[in-house]
Amino acid sequence: MEATTFVLFGATGDLARRKIYPALYNLFLDHKLHNSFAVIGLGRREVTDEAYQAMVERSLRDFSRREVKDTASVRSFLKAFRYNVLDVGHTEDYVKLLERVEQVETGMGSTPNRMFYLSVGPEFFEPIALNIEASGLGAAKGWKRLVIEKPFGHDLQSAQELNLTLSKAFTEEEIYRIDHYLGKPMVQELDVFQQTNPVLHALWNNRYIANVQITAAETVGVEERAGYYDHVGALRDMFQNHMLQLLMMLAIRLPKDSSADEVRFKKREVMEALEPLDEANIEASVIRGQYTAGAIKGIPVPGYRSEAGISAGSMNDTFIAARLQIDDPFWKGVPFYIRTGKRMKEKSTRIVIEFKEPLKQSSTVEEDDIPNLLVFEISPNEGITLQLKARDPRNKGKFKAVHIDFHTSSIEVPEAYENLIHDALNGDPSFFAHWNEVELSWKWVQPILNAFAGNSVPLYSYAAGSHGPAESDQLLAQDGHHWWLDA
Ligand code: NAD
Question: What string of DSSP letters covers 448-474?
Answer without folding.
Answer: HHHHHHTT-S-EEEEETTBSS-HHHHH
